[in-house]
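User: Design a sequence. Structure:
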């Protein structure tokens, strides 16, 4: 007896998110939903489970201008993984800067939700084997910011246009 077996191989080809910058949010081939918080309008990708250098992207947000052109992209990951840094460095070269929080400048608690707060730090270049909090790649038309939140074990990647 022969039992048919179907094997699907999925290749993990990292998205080149910088190529979405400057495109209309409805022309990029993924389903998005509009969200607004105060004056800020952005689009969240529906079912945004993508592989990015061996890491699962939890959420993807597109920030747009008044003509719905993408000017900024935020990717959120629920972990910190060296594969991500190595993958970004392999694709975009060595980072322009590596920074770490230095001194707390300001701390505010939300008046409406005690679990929400914001902190503002000065930054400094890292030295030796220190782990960076922010890694920056400056490219001709865009910038990549890699934010490591070591307290919550999360990562944010931001692609920002220098044009739009």
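Assistant: Done.
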């Amino acid at each position: 007896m022969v039992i048919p077996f179907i094997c699907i191989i999925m290749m993990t080809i990292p998205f080149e998110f910088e190529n979405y910058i400057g495109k209309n949010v409805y022309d990029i081939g993924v389903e998005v939903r509009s969200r607004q918080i105060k004056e800020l309008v952005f689009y969240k990708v529906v079912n945004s489970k993508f592989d990015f250098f061996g890491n699962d992207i939890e959420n993807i947000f597109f920030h747009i201008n008044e003509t719905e052109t993408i000017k900024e992209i935020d990717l959120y990951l629920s972990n910190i993984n060296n594969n991500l840094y190595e993958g970004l460095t392999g694709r975009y070269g060595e980072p322009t800067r590596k920074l770490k929080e230095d001194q707390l400048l300001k701390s505010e608690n939300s008046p409406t939700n005690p679990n929400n707060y914001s902190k503002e730090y000065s930054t400094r270049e890292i030295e030796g084997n220190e782990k960076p909090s922010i890694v920056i790649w400056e490219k001709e038309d865009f910038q990549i910011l890699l934010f490591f939140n070591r307290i919550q074990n999360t990562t944010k990647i931001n692609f920002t246009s220098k044009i739009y």
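The CA atoms of residues 68 and 94 lie 32 Å apart. Residues 82-92 form the longest helix (11 residues).
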